[in-house]
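ok so i was messing around last nite and threw this chain in just to see what happens. nothing serious, just curious
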Amino acid sequence: MLHSKITGVGMYVPETVVTNHDLSKMMDTSDEWIVERTGIKERRFFKEGEDTVSSMAAKAAAVALERAGKKAEDVDFIVFATLSSDYNFPGSGVLLQRKLPFRQIGAVDIRAQCSGFIYALSVADQYIRTGTYKTILVVGSEVQSNVFEKSDRGRSLAVIFGDGAGAVVLEATEESNKGILTTRLHSDGRFAEELYLEHPGSRRKERFNPDMMENGELLPYMNGKLVFVNALKYFPEVIREALADCNLKDSDIDLLIPHQANARITTAVQKEMKLPDEKVVSNIDRFGNTTAASIPIGLCEAWEQGRIKDGDLIAIAAFGSGFMWASALIRW
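result:
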């Protein structure tokens, strides 16, 4: 029976570091205020003319491919998770496809926001399990620093998000009890407007007009309290669903890599699942919330730091816009 196994990991973050003190010069905020509410101390912002969603993905992908001992020509398919594609259309998958010497392979974009990387991983996993493809590149990449207004009006969201990319190479294997063991995906569209960016959408006759800019309708909206409460509920729940699939328990987890949404959420989930610090990845203090890129960035850093060993059980989980939430278990 075929399984899918991660054989290479890579990441890229822009060079520009933006601290809380930097943001305090643009809006009424402070380092203490941001750290207390989010745990974030700094984040990376892209450089216009140098970094794009697809170019950052290409840099992360090149590292992942090298570590997997593969060339771009070996890849059969691309699954690209992002909410911030370079263009409204086409998606960033094809833009990545042209940046490295890939063959004329298929590329699909996944728009599942904070849960995007796990959704993308599940799609790639099924392609491999069915024997359709043998080697798939899965990426998450975001440029978000330019969608938030760096002002008092946009402060609540502008301090949270950052830019970056992460990638993994997924390959077919016949090793038993290795690779991706299970994925669990959920959504509840009743709450779609509680964390969303409405414009420029297709619901109105005009996708854009000057009034939208003036009224702040081109800015994202988040009901922070509702998102926080639901994240606390669904993070541990969806992880335990995956564990139940495999007849495992919380204590079997060797490393939890949650989507980096808020340090308080990560701490609460860690406490609920009784996991020690060494079993939880948290890098939101340095990168902020990089949405679809946060889990592969965390995975790459953990691997580089030697925190992932052969045979380890890795749990990844996310919750965010949609509402959408997901988890996966990986036997390294």
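not much to say yet. The chain has a mean pLDDT of 96.
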